[in-house]
Design a protein that fits this description.
The N and C termini lie far apart (53 Å). The protein has a six-stranded parallel beta sheet. The protein has a two-stranded antiparallel ribbon with strand order 1-2. Strands 5-6 form a two-stranded antiparallel sheet. By secondary structure, it is α/β, with parallel strands linked by helices. The chain is 31% helix and 18% strand. It has eight helices and ten strands. The structure holds zinc ion (ZN).
Length: 294
C-alpha cells in the first residue's frame, strides 16, 4: 500500500514537472533602440507558451555554392538538430523551410501536413514578389535602414579565389531530422495556415542566411512580423553571406553580429539557444574573436 502511494505521488510529481516544462519557455529577448544615439542593449525575460510557439528552420540546405558557407552550415547543423529535438520535446511546432527544394519532400507526411492545413486569411496581403523561387519581402525603407554589411557580391567569404554562384542545394541538410508531426514548406500562405490552425502566436526563426533569406523569405522575419506574430531570432543558430573584403571591412562573424544588431533594432528581438537547451551558445570554430556580442 505504502509503495503504491509513493508510486502515485511520484507519478503526479513527474506529470506536474513535465507539464510545466512543456508549456513554458523562458526566453531572454535582446533588443535595441532605433535611435542611433541610444546604444543601450535591453534584455527582457519573457515566458512563452511552447504550445503556441513555432520554430522555423530557414534554408539549412545540404550544400551551398560558397564552400565556406557550406562548411559553416555543416558545423552548425548537428547542434541545431540537438536544439530542435529539445524544442520539439517542449511542444514547440517545428517547420522545416528548405526553400526551392520542397519537391524533394513530395508525398511525405510532413509536406502533406503543410498542404492540407486549412486556408486562413492573413491580416495583410502576403508578399507575392518573386525572388529565388519564393515570394520575397524586400528591405522596407519605412521601417529599417540599409543593411550594415555590403552583400552586393553575394558574400562569398572564401579567401583567395571566389566561389561560382550556382544552385548547389537539393534538399535540407541530412543532419537535421524531420520528425513525425513536423511540417515542411517554403510557402508564406502555407506557413500562415499551419500557424493559424494551431493558434500559434510566437515564431522563432533560425537558419541561414540572416542578411538574405532569414529576413526576406515568405515564412521569415519580415513577413512574420508584418502578419503580427511575436517573432524572435535564435541568434547563435544563424550565419550570414558576407565577404570581409566588402564594407564595412570587418571579419565575417562581426559582420553577422552587425546584422543581428540591425534586426534587434528594426524587426524583432533575439535570444540564444541556451534558453532552450541550457547549454552554452553555439560559436563557429573559425570565430577567433576574443569577445563577441553573444
Ligand atoms: Zn566561397
Amino acid at each position: 500500500m505504502k509503495t503504491l502511494k509513493i508510486t502515485i505521488l511520484a507519478s503526479v510529481l513527474i506529470a506536474m514537472t513535465t507539464s510545466i516544462w512543456a508549456e513554458n519557455l523562458k526566453l531572454n529577448l535582446r533588443s535595441q533602440s532605433k535611435d542611433a544615439a541610444d546604444t543601450k542593449v535591453n534584455t527582457e525575460r519573457v515566458m512563452w507558451d511552447s504550445k503556441k510557439t513555432a520554430l522555423i528552420i530557414c534554408d539549412m540546405w545540404d550544400d551551398h555554392w560558397c564552400k565556406s558557407a557550406s562548411r559553416r552550415v555543416g558545423e552548425m547543423a548537428p547542434v541545431l538538430n540537438d536544439t530542435i529535438k529539445i524544442a520539439r520535446a517542449k511542444g514547440i511546432f517545428i517547420i522545416h523551410a528548405p526553400s526551392s527544394v520542397i519537391d524533394f519532400y513530395k508525398d511525405t507526411s510532413q509536406r502533406n501536413l503543410a498542404q492540407k492545413a486549412p486556408f486562413a486569411k492573413a491580416p495583410i496581403k502576403l508578399s507575392t514578389s518573386p525572388r529565388w523561387g519564393t515570394a520575397w519581402c524586400w528591405t522596407d525603407g519605412k521601417r529599417e535602414g540599409v543593411l550594415p554589411i555590403d552583400d552586393s557580391d553575394m558574400g562569398c567569404s572564401c579567401k583567395g579565389e571566389k566561389c561560382d554562384i550556382r544552385e548547389a542545394w537539393k534538399r535540407q541538410n541530412k543532419l537535421i531530422d524531420i520528425a513525425e508531426g513536423d511540417a515542411v514548406t517554403d510557402n508564406g500562405q502555407e506557413t500562415y495556415n499551419l500557424l493559424a490552425e494551431r493558434e500559434i502566436d510566437n515564431v522563432i526563426l533560425c537558419g541561414v542566411h540572416l542578411n538574405m533569406c532569414v529576413l526576406g523569405r515568405p515564412f521569415a522575419i519580415r513577413q512574420m512580423v508584418k502578419v503580427g506574430k511575436n517573432v524572435a531570432l535564435m541568434r547563435d543558430m544563424t550565419d550570414t553571406m558576407y565577404n570581409p573584403e566588402r564594407p564595412p571591412g570587418v571579419d565575417h562573424f562581426t559582420g553577422t553580429d552587425l546584422v543581428i544588431e540591425h534586426i534587434e533594432k528594426f524587426w524583432c528581438p533575439s535570444f540564444t539557444s541556451t534558453d532552450i537547451t541550457g547549454k552554452k551558445a553555439f560559436r563557429f570554430k573559425e570565430d577567433k574573436r576574443k569577445k563577441s556580442r553573444k
